[in-house]
Amino acid sequence: KPKQQTISRFFAPK
Amino acid sequence: MLELRLLQGGLLKKVLEAMRELVTDANFDCSRSGCSLQAMDSSHVALVALLLRSDGFDHFRCDRNRSMGMNLNHVAKLLRCAGNDDIVTLKADDDGDTVTFMFESPKQDKIADFEMKLMDIQSEHLGIPEAEYQAIVKMPSQEFARICRDLSTIGDTVVISVTKEGVKFSTKGDIGSANIVCRQNTTVDKPEESTVIEMKDPVSLTFALRYLISFTKATPLSNTVTVSMSSDLPMVVEYKIADMGYIRYYLAPKIDE
Description:
The complex is a heterodimer.
Chain A: E1 3-4
Chain B: E1 2-6, H1 9-19, E2 25-31, E3 34-40, E4 46-53, E5 59-62, E6 66-71, H2 72-79, E7 87-92, E8 98-104, E9 111-117, E10 135-140, H3 141-151, E11 157-163, E12 166-172, E13 177-182, E14 196-199, E15 203-208, H4 209-215, E16 224-229, E17 235-241, E18 245-251, E19 254-255
Antiparallel strand pairs in B: 1-5, 1-7, 2-3, 2-6, 3-4, 4-18, 7-8, 8-9, 10-14, 10-16, 11-12, 11-15, 12-13, 16-17, 17-18
Helix pairs in contact in B: 1-2
């Protein structure tokens, strides 16, 4: 079953 | 001193309705160039980015950069006290901890002001890198909303695939499965009714439908929506806000492990 990713996996804090 | 005046107060109502389901508390960041907001939903799966450029306002004064924390449900409730045709003005002092919303009727025979306390919200800004997306689909926003709603009657996850043939939305659930295919269609009279697919490479990604349904609360803001996708990147669902900016939603995909 595909696992939900979170935004922080893709975008880092500025 | 901060003073923002918008003749179309109804626009601000739509903007708040488009965000309040996804995000509870957020900072409105105001500078000379305009007003922006970046916030994630509580599970950090989706991110909303709003931009309202200063030149889109009828009057825009921002002497000092301000970050004003607000509860979006409170703002939405407050804006419901304004008529759709009312002129809405936001005012805040540089050092104050309140913001005032002033509503003027179009004939200027009724003027109301509501003062709201600002909140201290700790949030960090994420850097969103510029990306070349493998596929960009522009379609009528009502059609997109309809597809998301219809598929949610069957499943809670949607696979969105873009190929040369078109864009396919698929779902599966306990009672069965569904597929909706939209083909490129640029022959219609009105450009806002067309579906345009720009594809560099075929792409197929899986998303939770409930977030997409939240995004479609922005449908009243624009006749069209743009969906951008690349493998291993959050999808971007963008609604333009006429002459002012945009509301963009980023949604992290579900990935097979």
